[in-house]
Amino acid sequence: VVIELINTGSELMLGRVLNTHQQWLCRELADLGHLVTRQVAVADQGLPIQAAVRESLSRADLIITTGGLGPTSDDITRDLIAELLGCRLIEDQNVVGHIARFFAALKRPMPERTRVEAQVPEGAAVFLNAHGTAPGLAIELSPNPFRDDARSSWLVMLPGPPRELRPMFTDSIKPWLQRLFKPDAPLFCRTLRSTGLGESIVQGKLEAPMQRFVNQGLEIGYCARPGQVDVRLAARNPGAAELVADAEKTVREALGRRVFGVENEELEDLIIRWMSEQKQTLAVAESCTGGLLANRLTNVPGASAVLLAGLVVYSNEAKRKFLGVREETLAEHGAVSAAVALEMAAGARERTGATYALSLTGIAGPGGGTLQKPVGTVFIGLAGPEGVASVHHVNPWDRLTFKQVSSQQALDLLRMRIEK
Amino acid sequence: VVIELINTGSELMLGRVLNTHQQWLCRELADLGHLVTRQVAVADQGLPIQAAVRESLSRADLIITTGGLGPTSDDITRDLIAELLGCRLIEDQNVVGHIARFFAALKRPMPERTRVEAQVPEGAAVFLNAHGTAPGLAIELSPNPFRDDARSSWLVMLPGPPRELRPMFTDSIKPWLQRLFKPDAPLFCRTLRSTGLGESIVQGKLEAPMQRFVNQGLEIGYCARPGQVDVRLAARNPGAAELVADAEKTVREALGRRVFGVENEELEDLIIRWMSEQKQTLAVAESCTGGLLANRLTNVPGASAVLLAGLVVYSNEAKRKFLGVREETLAEHGAVSAAVALEMAAGARERTGATYALSLTGIAGPGGGTLQKPVGTVFIGLAGPEGVASVHHVNPWDRLTFKQVSSQQALDLLRMRIEK
User: Fold this and answer.
1) pLDDT by 10-residue block (mean), chain A, 420 residues
2) Which of residues 57-86 of B touch A (CB under 8 A)?
């Protein structure tokens, strides 16, 4: 099944909003076993929309458009597509009734202009909008005159607002698609997340051992994020489930403990989960990451059972006052040093009574670097029942990436300690 | 100038990541006066990439591709495009040197496979990657054999990671584009950022006074973000600059001090700037926002001159120990109360000696709400030379949105106090 997605919206082309439909619909379709071959975005203008739809119709079995079905003057997709296909628009009384009931429930008068949303291409399947007024529409072209091979195609139009589109897709379009389009073979996809190795190192470790799976049809993808490389394994041949499972085993053998999670798991999710299970507690003391580490941990529901306190101690005085870092240590080693990281971690642990304490001190930049300690230098300390430890990294990136990578390294240091 | 954007990446088509390049590049180009006519995303596969590039080449003056320039096996864009154009790839010694220096700075050996990134289509302009290894590439097709009109086109290839693409575009590609492509008529676009009012309230206040500008060709767009509504004013007719300037004046009159900034300014940018100019200092004490407020402030370069300390005090004990919140206050009013917010702010100010201190205590959810204090409740305290004050909001959103909106309200409370 060849599927193409067309997103219409001038706000997309002006770069004013993020196109979340693309990811959401592609993922939903992938979960049904279908890969979108091409996604196109164009402005709310006649020529670009008709050109994009015409081209997709010449290639695809299923075309899904989003946006342009509403009541305002820039909602032109329905009219343009009807014109392109030579379809008459007729008022659908079911839709008129739905719109009337929608406004009655809100106890507001029905604006006359919403009535245009009941204009439906003759013969189209209509999907009522449970969270709005504009219906979804599906038109079968059988045969499709835009295709050289004269096969048939379906064109599905969905409303633009995500809170209307998503439930409509899930509740109505998805079951309809499942009846109409059987995936050629089910698609299996597994993402493994690693940290501590660069993208080229990860691939270097995987290339030879993965070759035999690639030969059997496995597709491997790499995605580099700050302080993290995701390895995506996908296959859709018969036997794909076993192929992906075997490949996962090989990736885990090759990367060892550098693999920390699967799918969308973050390091902070694992740490909060493990520590709450073990009834362990945590304190963090941050200089250069400025609260990002505490922020990441507290993004996880239930973090309050684990994180006792976070101390953001930019100034030397705050390091002394809130963590008991000694004047002499600061004078002798400087604030950015292993010695200070260790005293920060030990001080945070002692003053909060937490099972573990993490600390970071470094130079986020853009200013403040020296020859010995360039921008990007970071010392990370960990204090726990087993004693204290520190690591040293150089992350010479921009300020925000530095913060992200450094917080990732700190979480990983703790993970390596507490992982079962 | 006809511009098309091609994003390559199987992870996009599998719906595994959001395509942030589209918004970012479209916005940057719009700010230069250029509208992207079409954006296309395809998987990292030979046929779809070559088909998309070939089609764009038949229509566009400028084609920008993202992704597929890295060292791994799915990085195939450069090779495919060279093949399509019949260009030889040759090793660029400047790029080899850049890659070697990049790994030397990291004190890591240069992985042999990164050397492939130095393969450059013969005759291409090369933009070194200040934040990575793969360079940007620009090829002129003069004349462009894919166009019927035999005009020339430029094809620009950018690396996929956003933290490499963005500075490369800003520092190298943008000035280069400005020399090469003059916009047909200048596009004037101005974004005003407001906080404290919902999107429909903002639109309600603006609709009547803005009508006369709309009649003259002004386009108004609204973008609702957590705790923030952006109003976008755009025009490209003759006289557009004055039209947009007059419209801005009217928006500012209608929204008053709810407008806090323009374009990409964040509340934390303004606060760090104003406070450093005034040589004022700040401390923050956070419960429910868990470090997000400190994190936002420390995202701003130069924050270390302003922010003395941030205390993330989830537990009652931490509130007592690090901020001196009294046992009786906690017992009498509960941790989520105006009284505790005020003591947190006063304690943070006193213990750090900062000019101002902000505090937050609330219920981020999903659990922990009560009938009197539902999930979303937040109390924000401010202590300064003028005394202490607190505000109370209910932000009944998901956990991350709650944190973002609450931190926005805290920054706004401080802004209203210190704004000149």
Assistant:
1) 94 86 93 91 92 96 94 84 95 96 83 89 95 93 92 95 90 93 82 93 94 93 89 89 96 97 94 97 97 97 95 94 96 97 98 97 90 94 97 92 96 93
2) 70-74
Q: How far is CA A7 from CA A4, A24, A42, A44, A52, in A?
A: 10, 12, 7, 10, 10
Q: Rounded to a whole number, what is the distance in Å from the CA of B387 to chain A's nearest CA?
A: 23
Is residue A289 within 8 angstroms of chain B, CB to CB? yes
- Residue B412, both tokens: 């706004």
Report the residue of chain A nearest B31, measured CA to CA: A14
pLDDT in tens, B360-387: 999 998 888 888 899 999 999 999 999 9
Structure tokens given for B305:
């001159």
Neighboring chain A residues of B105 at a CB cutoff of 8 Å: 394, 396
- Which chain A residue shows the shortest CA-CA distance from B102? A396
Render A264-276 in DSSP notation, one character per residue: T--HHHHHHHHHH
- Name the nearest CA neighbour of A306 among A342, A343, A268, A341: A268
pLDDT reported for residue B40:
98
Distance from CA of A339 to the nearest CA of B (A): 20
Cα–Cα separations (whole angstroms), residue B343 to A176, B357, B393: 58, 11, 18
Q: Who's near B279: CB < 8 A, 6+ residues apart?
A: none
- Integer-rounded Cα Rg, in Å, for chain B is 26
Residues of chain A in contact with residue B15, where contact means CB-CB under 8 angstroms, are 22-30
Instruction: Pick left, alpha or beta for residue B353 (phi over 0 → left; psi -120 to 50 → alpha; otherwise beta).
Output: left
Q: Comparing C-alpha atoms, which of B188, B274, B194 is closest to residue B233?
A: B188
H helices of B86-235, where? Answer: 93-105, 162-168, 174-180, 199-215
| Surface of B (23-52) touching A: CB under 8 A | 23-30, 35-44, 48, 52
Distance CA B398, CA B182 (A): 45
Q: How many C-beta atoms surround the C-beta of residue B66 within 10 A?
A: 27
- Is residue B190 within 8 A of residue B182, CB to CB? The reply is no
**pLDDT tens digits along B3-59:** 999 999 998 998 888 899 999 999 899 888 888 999 999 999 999 999 999 999 999
**Contact of B323 with B313, CB cutoff 8 Å:** yes
B298 contacts A315? CB cut-off 8 A? no
Residues forming beta bridges with residue B91, ordered by sequence position: B119
Beta strands in B239-295 (DSSP E): 259-262, 282-286
Q: Are A116 and A126 in contact (CB under 8 A)?
A: no
Candidates A160, A145, A163, A95; CA nearest to A125 is: A95
Contact B351 A321 (CB under 8 A): yes
CB atoms A19 and B14 under 8 Å:
no
Which tokens belong to A207? 């290339």
**Length of chain A counted residue by residue:** 420
